[in-house]
Amino acid sequence: MHRTHRTVGSGGCGRRFARRARESILGPVERLSIRPSGPLAGTVAVGGAKNSVLKLMAATVLAEGRYVLRNVPDITDVRDMADLLRAMGAVVERSAPHELTIYRPPDTDLLPEAPYELVERMRASIVVLGPLVARFGHARVAMPGGDDFGPRPIDMHLRALEAMGTEFEFRHGYIEARADRLVGARILLEFPSVGATENALMAAVLAKGTTVIDNAAREPEIADLAAFLNRMGATVLGAGSSTIRVEGVEELSPVEHVVIPDRVEAATFLAAVGVAGGEITITGARAEHMDMLITKLCDMGMRISHDHEGIWAMAPGRLRAIDVSTLPYPGLATDYKPLLVAMLAVSDGVGIVTENLFAGRFRYIDELVRMGADIRVEGHHAVVRGKPMLSGAPVRAHDIRAGAALAVAGLRAEGETIVTDAAHIDRGYEDFAGKLAALGADVSAN
Ligand code: UD1
């Protein structure tokens, strides 16, 4: 990063400062042990966005040929999506540490089928449905079940594809989809669902005529997918806004693409420094994707600035409590919420946290309470009364973000915090413990 920097504006509230990173020392783990370590310092690099790369991988079924994806994190979800593409007959190779090459071997037909064993491992696999129907005219995809956040319906995905002419039958736990050729349609989403927007978008690019997706999700990952599709030869306008317009084309071709940085991984390091104190630089992070979070962290007392290379953040001591409420982008992402709850648990004052996206996304709170946090849940609200320090305890990671948040809370918990089922963290973070340790956190894997 250069010494020059911008402050405030799009996501900033302080001065930047950089120190050299220490060596990364740990790999993927089942169990993490965390002790309070005092202020963090140094530089950490953020990887490619999990929620983008999974959809880009799904989009590769839209055209035959050789794709190269760069800035791909080495995480379990990517490996699971690679297994799904392989099960369909594709070759997926890690051609460099953060690069995937995907192609179909000559004389092999892709099988448009997503088996239960793989969909069950990763719910996001449902995004293959749209591109498979668009390309092959039929697809057989296992119905995803619920998960630890509660029910995760896919009605909006199905209705969008139906509007474009897909017919569905549901048999033996599978969605069987059929369409002669998809036709463009006006799709009005009841809610700006990320997955439904992506499924509709990937189907619309090969549909006959114009598709308009209204009340579309606006997440940066949708804009990344649209950029990928446009590079392939699609005509997608307005991605990143609430109205996406797609002019269907006859054929697409494979491309090379660099995945956008993971804003939730970047948020995790911001939360870590917020809890432990100190000052860090997060290279590769894009502040313009995290405006609302940065505004909220500044309200809590952090100082944050950014330039084209990344984000600098400083926490001058114990932070102030604030109220937060999750909303679709550009609102505060639900994926940040466990991290914010961990931060509030050690802040000064009382914060009210409201979850507006996933009914059951509060399970990790019982684990934080085991660490001495004072949190009361009422419906989709949590009232968090901050304490100066938590108390290290054995806790369980129920999902990716919850696991990360528990580890972050451990940075300000007396004694040892042991996070079990830490393999969940590896679904979305590459070398989670190593990167935190590089910032001076006392984290070890066993
Ligand atoms: C994606 C992200 C996830 C993030 C979420 C919201 C991936 C792999 N995951 O999940 O990390 O937390 O966006 O930002 O990208 N819903 C329906 N019917 C549907 C679809 C969704 O009722 O057909 C509801 C969901 O139950 C939920 C809300 O809409 O309450 C938002 O879900 P959605 O935006 O679709 O999330 P995902 O795409 O599953």
Total number of helical segments? 14
Q: Enter the CATH topology name of the largest domain.
A: UDP-n-acetylglucosamine1-carboxyvinyl-transferase, Chain
Distance between the termini: 34 Å
Classify the helix fraction into a percent range: 25-40%
What does the overall shape look like? elongated
CATH class call of the largest domain: Alpha Beta
- Main sheet: which strands, in order across? 1-17-18-16-3
Quickly give the structural class.
alpha/beta
Number of DSSP E strands? 27
The overall pLDDT, averaged over residues, is 91
Name of the CATH homologous superfamily of the largest domain: Enolpyruvate transferase domain
- Name every ligand kind in the structure: uridine-diphosphate-N-acetylglucosamine
Spans of at least 5 consecutive residues whose pLDDT stays below 50 are 1-11, 14-28
Strand content: 25-35%
Which CATH-level-2 architecture of the largest domain?
A: Alpha-beta prism
What does the radius of gyration come to? 22 Å
Total domains:
2
Q: Quick one: biggest sheet? A: 5 strands, mixed
Assembly type: single chain
Describe it for me?
The strands form 7 sheets. The chain has a 5-stranded mixed sheet. Strand 17 (303-307) and strand 18 form a beta hairpin. The protein is built from 14 helices and 27 strands. The protein folds into 2 domains: 6-47 and 261-445, UDP-n-acetylglucosamine1-carboxyvinyl-transferase, Chain (Alpha-beta prism), CATH 3.65.10.10; 50-258, Enolpyruvate transferase domain (UDP-n-acetylglucosamine1-carboxyvinyl-transferase, Chain, Alpha-beta prism), CATH 3.65.10. Helix 4 (129-136) packs parallel to helix 6 (194-204), helix 6 (194-204) runs parallel beside helix 7 and helix 8 (263-276) runs parallel beside helix 10. With 446 residues, it is of the alpha/beta class. It binds uridine-diphosphate-N-acetylglucosamine. Uridine-diphosphate-N-acetylglucosamine is lined by residues 51, 54, 124, 152-157, 191, 193-196, 217, 333-335, 357-358.
